[in-house]
Inverse folding.
């Protein structure tokens, strides 16, 4: 499994959002305003991550992917509408608490459905492509739209400025981590490609057969035999037939048997 697995990253972000919203009713009004603002920024990151990373991958790699995306958007629409209502409300409003709890409960239920879809997506994608989704999710964190709580909700101008500095530092750290993760993922993919290429080359070399010698070429046994025979015929002295009938000196010299004559 990759270091920055998409499903693991989303689980971490869900846990962070749960911590932000947990025990909200028991907190002070001042802290409630800050936590509501933090929760809104976290939700904005989720929504942008779905739109830029998850939905395109589902449409591309899953059968009926377009229908799954439409189903997801249908669940999200009322949640987004309630989030917009919360942003227009103050923590002093009587309906704020109930609206806050109901909205985020439904948001977590939505991500329970998305978790099941993401596991199917992981099985449908090749490992190399899926491993790139995690770093892309990290990059979305840096560019997700966010809003800054006003001084009245945050408690003081200094609190708002401190919150902004912390947010900028977190973005810088996330960008650095994201770039490092992308480099690690790219190096891992290159290493796998090189290993696969070497294995393929070795298989190809093992399957190459030695070329069969062509007739008449060097190394052909038949050609060598014919050549030796030709040389022998060129250098072996040819014996001429002798015209003598009785004894002949040339027959003796050439080791040729004297022809015999038949008598009538």
């Amino acid at each position: 499994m990759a270091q920055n697995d998409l499903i693991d990253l989303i689980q971490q972000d869900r846990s962070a959002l749960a911590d932000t919203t947990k025990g909200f009713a028991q907190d002070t009004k001042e802290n409630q305003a800050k936590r509501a603002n933090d929760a809104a920024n976290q939700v904005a990151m989720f929504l942008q991550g779905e739109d830029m990373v998850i939905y395109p991958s589902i449409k591309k790699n899953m059968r009926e992917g377009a229908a799954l995306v439409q189903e997801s958007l249908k669940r999200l629409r009322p949640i987004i509408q309630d989030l917009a209502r919360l942003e227009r409300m103050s923590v002093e409003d009587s309906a704020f608490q109930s609206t806050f709890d109901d909205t985020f409960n439904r948001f977590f239920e939505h991500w329970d459905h998305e978790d099941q879809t993401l596991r199917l997506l992981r099985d449908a994608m090749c490992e190399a492509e899926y491993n790139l989704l995690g770093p892309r999710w990290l990059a979305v964190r840096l560019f997700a739209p966010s809003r800054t709580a006003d001084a009245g909700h945050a408690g003081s101008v200094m609190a708002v400025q401190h919150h902004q500095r912390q947010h900028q530092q977190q973005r810088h750290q996330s960008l650095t981590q994201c770039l490092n993760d992308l480099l690690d993922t790219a190096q891992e993919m290159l290493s796998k490609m090189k290993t696969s290429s070497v294995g393929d080359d070795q298989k190809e070399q093992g399957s190459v057969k030695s070329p069969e010698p062509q007739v008449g070429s060097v190394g052909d046994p038949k050609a060598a035999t014919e050549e030796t025979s030709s040389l022998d015929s060129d250098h072996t002295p040819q014996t001429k037939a002798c015209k003598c009938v009785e004894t002949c000196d040339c027959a003796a010299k050439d080791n040729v048997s004297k022809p015999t004559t038949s008598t009538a």
